[in-house]
Every structure is written in structure tokens, then in C-alpha cells.
């Protein structure tokens, strides 16, 4: 349908008062949905939610087309609207993203209800469609608010993270928990459980124990390779490699509130990762190390390429935090820093008795590199 044409069977003129309510609330609902969609897209990186909000916005536009558009426009009288000056103090105050979301969801729901009630006078089909949209909004909005609290908190901690430690499951659970405590005290921001020697049940139990202790210590807890175990143990996220389950499928298992990390070994993989729903990338291997053997080392040249790629993208919502990985420790951290990296992941270097000193020394060097904090968002 050409939106400029008025296809409504205009066998009657509706009062301007009714048309003004419909016109104002159609605009209000569409604007509210767009605000929420932009939040899901640019602030929260919540791709599935973004597309659900977009579909709702399009369905609303289709329903509104059932109204006599010319009558709506003729009735519009913004200058004569006594409500335009009747603003409240709270309308001008949005201190954080969560605040924007709760204001947006509330406004949109109210506008949809008005559209539905007044729409019944003009077009019953339109009112019925809006009612369905309102019901769908309840679910999507509930999820959006949860992502804001949990996912938003995780993402903002990820944005600030510099030191990422990979650990195994230890001799037993107590030993692993002690190790986590020591690393957290040394300022490590993220800890990954990477242990391919444990059976699934033991890995799951270690993952659950890690979720509890890292939650208390304020450290992010990531499970290597296993989206199922990350989801079952309520970990903060999962890390996968290029030969493992694709990020989109991992996302289906862990949901939009979890962190998903992806390994990259060349600049094409980095660009692909930035176009995916991955929340961060590992870049390596930089140097030979004791944890894993490699045939090829993209090294510091690769890190320089990634740094250039990130700084060339003006819209930082199109990049992700990047952690250099592979053989990194106190002895070579200067080279990583010179390549422009302010974040690293380490395994072998933080496995010994001096792990806390290494973590602290590495962190001090990394802090000389500014890290982009794109949203710089306060999701309190
Ligand atoms: C932070 C981080 N970066 C890279 C990796 C490596 O993942 P992957 O390529 O899947 O190799 P494995 O660790 O599974 O052997 C990682 N685990 N963490
Ligand atoms: C598991 C792993 N993945 C890498 C990659 O480049 O993807 S490097 C690596 C080993 C990390 O341990 P260490 O710090 O002991 O070298
Ligand atoms: Mg892997």
C-alpha cells in the first residue's frame, strides 16, 4: 500500500478529538519502540532482542495504516495541544540506560493501550492488532529489562576488563576456588575454566563452584568450549574457537544475557567476529607458550593489525574488546603494549607460585594503554 494514500473506507468523518488521541499515541508508541530498539542494538549488543523490537515496530506501522491517515493528519494540532507543556521533572532525567529502558517500556505500553481503546471506535481490526502487539511487548520488554540488569552489568565489566586468566580445574574444587581467590586479589578481571581432562560431571561441578565464588568476588567467569556447561552452571559466559559451534548457535544455548567470546587468528576472522554477536575476541597466538602447541604464530604483527582495525572504526559499537593471547607474561608484555593492546589473556604465566605478582605487573603495564570504553555507559 502506498502510505501516502488514504485507503480507509472513509464513509464517515471521525471527531478530531479522537483522531488526535490516535495520532499522538501512534507516534508515541513508534518512538518508544525505536528508542528501545536502538538501546538493544547499540548499547546492549543484544541482536535477537533488536530484531524482535524491529518486527514489533514494523507490525505497529502496518496496523496504523488501517487508520484514515488524512483524517489523522488533518486533526494534528501540536501547537494547540495543552499537554505539550505539561512535562514532569522526571521526563528530563535519565541517569542511566536502565532508566531509559524503563521509561521507554512504560510509555510504549501506555501508548499502545490508548491506541487500542480509541482505535475500537474507528477500526476494530486495527485495535485487535494493536492488542496483540501489546501482549508481545510484555514479553520482549521483560527480557530487555533483564538484559539491562544482568547482561548490561556483565558487558560493562567486560568493557573495563584488562587481565584475563585461563585456569584448569585444579587438584580438587577447594584448590580451584583458592586459586580463583588469589587471582581475584591480584586484580584479574576475568577467569576462564579451560580443562579438557575432566569428565563432564566434574567439569560441571567445578563450573558451578566457580560461578559461586567469582560472583562473590566480582570477577567474570567464563567456560571454555562448552556452551551447555556454561548455561547449566550459570556462568557469565562461554569462549569458543573457530572450529567449534558457530557463535550464533552458541548464543541460542546461552541466551542474550551471557558473554560469548571467540578466538581469532587473522584479520578476516576479526572482521567476521565484529559482525557477529560475539562480545569479545581472543587474538593470537602471539608467542609460543607451554599451554598449547601451534604451527603458526600471527604474533605482534597481527595485534598491530587488530589495533588499527579497532581505531579505524569510528562507531565503536562495531568493535569488541580484544584480548591478546598466547605465551604472554611479564617478560614480553612490553611488546604487546607496543602493539596497542591494553588487554591480555594468560594461562602458563599465571600458573606458578608467582601468579599474583605476574598478574599485577602485567596489569600495571597494560594500564598505560587506553582501552576504548565505547558505551561508557552507566548501567547501574
Ligand atoms: C580468551 C581466549 N582466547 C582464545 C582461546 C582459545 O580458544 P580455542 O581456539 O577454542 O582453543 P582452546 O582453548 O579450546 O584449546 C581461549 N580459550 N580463550
Ligand atoms: C588456548 C590458547 N589459545 C590461543 C589462541 O591463540 O587462540 S593461545 C592459547 C594458549 C594460552 O596459554 P598461554 O598463556 O600459556 O600461552
Ligand atoms: Mg575451544
From TrEMBL:
CDD domains: TMP_TenI
Keywords: Magnesium, Metal-binding, Thiamine biosynthesis, Transferase
GO cellular-component term (any): cytoplasm
Record-listed 2-[(2R,5Z)-2-carboxy-4-methylthiazol-5(2H)-ylidene]ethyl phosphate binding positions: 327
Cofactors demanded by this protein: Mg(2+)
EC number: 2.5.1.3
Pfam families with a match to the protein in the record: ThiD2, TMP-TENI
Domain ThiD2: 20-142
InterPro entries: Aldolase_TIM, ThiamineP_synth_sf, ThiamineP_synth_TenI, ThiD2, TMP_synthase, TMP_synthase_cyanobac_bac
Catalytic activity: 4-methyl-5-(2-phosphooxyethyl)-thiazole + 4-amino-2-methyl-5-(diphosphooxymethyl)pyrimidine + H(+) = thiamine phosphate + diphosphate; 2-[(2R,5Z)-2-carboxy-4-methylthiazol-5(2H)-ylidene]ethyl phosphate + 4-amino-2-methyl-5-(diphosphooxymethyl)pyrimidine + 2 H(+) = thiamine phosphate + CO2 + diphosphate; 2-(2-carboxy-4-methylthiazol-5-yl)ethyl phosphate + 4-amino-2-methyl-5-(diphosphooxymethyl)pyrimidine + 2 H(+) = thiamine phosphate + CO2 + diphosphate
UniProt pathway: Cofactor biosynthesis; thiamine diphosphate biosynthesis; thiamine phosphate from 4-amino-2-methyl-5-diphosphomethylpyrimidine and 4-methyl-5-(2-phosphoethyl)-thiazole: step 1/1
Binding site for 4-amino-2-methyl-5-(diphosphooxymethyl)pyrimidine: 224, 263, 292
Residues that coordinate or bind Mg(2+): 225, 244
UniProt cofactor note: Binds 1 Mg(2+) ion per subunit.
Domain of life of the organism encoding this protein: Bacteria
Function: Condenses 4-methyl-5-(beta-hydroxyethyl)thiazole monophosphate (THZ-P) and 2-methyl-4-amino-5-hydroxymethyl pyrimidine pyrophosphate (HMP-PP) to form thiamine monophosphate (TMP).
Family: Belongs to the thiamine-phosphate synthase family.
Name of this chain's protein: Thiamine-phosphate synthase
Protein species of origin: Rhodopirellula sallentina SM41
Amino acid at each position: 500500500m502506498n502510505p501516502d494514500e488514504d485507503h480507509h473506507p472513509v464513509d464517515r468523518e471521525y471527531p478530531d478529538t479522537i483522531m488526535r488521541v490516535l495520532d499522538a499515541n501512534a507516534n508515541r508508541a513508534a518512538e518508544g519502540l525505536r528508542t528501545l530498539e536502538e538501546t538493544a542494538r547499540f548499547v546492549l549488543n543484544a541482536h535477537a532482542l533488536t530484531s524482535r523490537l524491529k518486527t514489533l515496530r514494523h507490525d505497529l506501522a502496518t496496523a496504523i495504516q488501517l487508520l484514515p491517515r488524512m483524517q489523522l493528519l488533518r486533526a494534528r494540532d501540536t501547537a494547540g495541544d495543552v499537554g505539550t507543556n505539561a512535562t514532569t521533572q522526571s521526563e528530563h532525567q535519565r541517569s542511566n540506560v536502565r532508566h531509559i529502558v524503563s521509561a521507554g517500556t512504560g510509555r510504549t505500553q501506555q501508548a499502545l493501550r490508548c491506541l487500542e481503546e480509541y482505535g475500537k471506535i474507528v477500526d476494530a481490526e486495527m485495535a485487535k492488532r494493536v492488542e496483540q502487539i501489546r501482549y508481545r511487548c510484555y514479553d520482549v520488554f521483560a527480557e530487555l529489562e533483564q538484559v539491562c540488569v544482568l547482561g548490561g552489568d556483565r558487558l560493562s565489566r567486560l568493557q573495563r576488563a584488562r587481565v584475563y586468566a585461563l585456569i584448569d580445574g585444579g587438584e580438587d574444587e577447594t584448590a580451584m576456588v583458592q586459586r580463583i581467590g588469589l587471582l581475584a586479589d591480584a586484580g584479574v578481571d576475568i577467569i576462564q575454566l579451560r580443562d579438557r581432562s575432566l569428565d563432564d560431571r566434574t567439569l560441571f561441578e567445578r563450573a558451578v563452584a566457580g560461578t559461586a565464588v567469582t560472583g562473590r568476588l566480582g570477577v567474570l567467569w567464563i567456560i571454555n568450549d562448552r556452551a551447555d556447561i556454561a548455561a547449566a552452571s550459570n556462568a557469565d559466559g562461554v569462549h569458543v574457537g573457530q572450529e567449534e559451534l558457530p557463535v550464533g548457535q552458541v548464543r541460542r544455548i546461552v541466551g542474550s544475557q551471557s558473554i560469548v567470546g571467540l578466538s581469532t587468528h587473522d584479520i578476516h576472522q576479526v572482521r567476521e567476529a565484529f559482525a557477529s554477536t560475539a562480545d569479545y575476541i581472543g587474538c593470537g597466538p602471539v608467542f609460543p607458550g607451554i599451554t598449547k602447541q601451534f604451527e603458526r604464530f600471527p604474533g605482534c604483527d597481527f595485534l598491530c593489525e587488530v589495533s588499527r582495525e579497532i581505531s579505524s572504526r569510528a562507531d565503536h559499537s562495531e568493535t569488541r574488546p580484544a584480548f591478546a593471547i598466547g605465551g604472554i607474561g611479564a617478560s614480553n608484555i612490553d611488546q604487546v603494549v607496543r602493539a596497542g593492546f591494553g588487554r591480555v589473556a594468560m594461562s602458563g604465566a599465571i600458573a606458578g607460585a608467582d601468579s599474583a605478582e605476574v598478574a599485577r605487573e602485567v596489569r600495571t603495564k597494560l594500564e598505560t594503554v587506553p582501552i576504548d570504553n565505547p558505551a561508557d555507559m552507566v548501567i547501574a
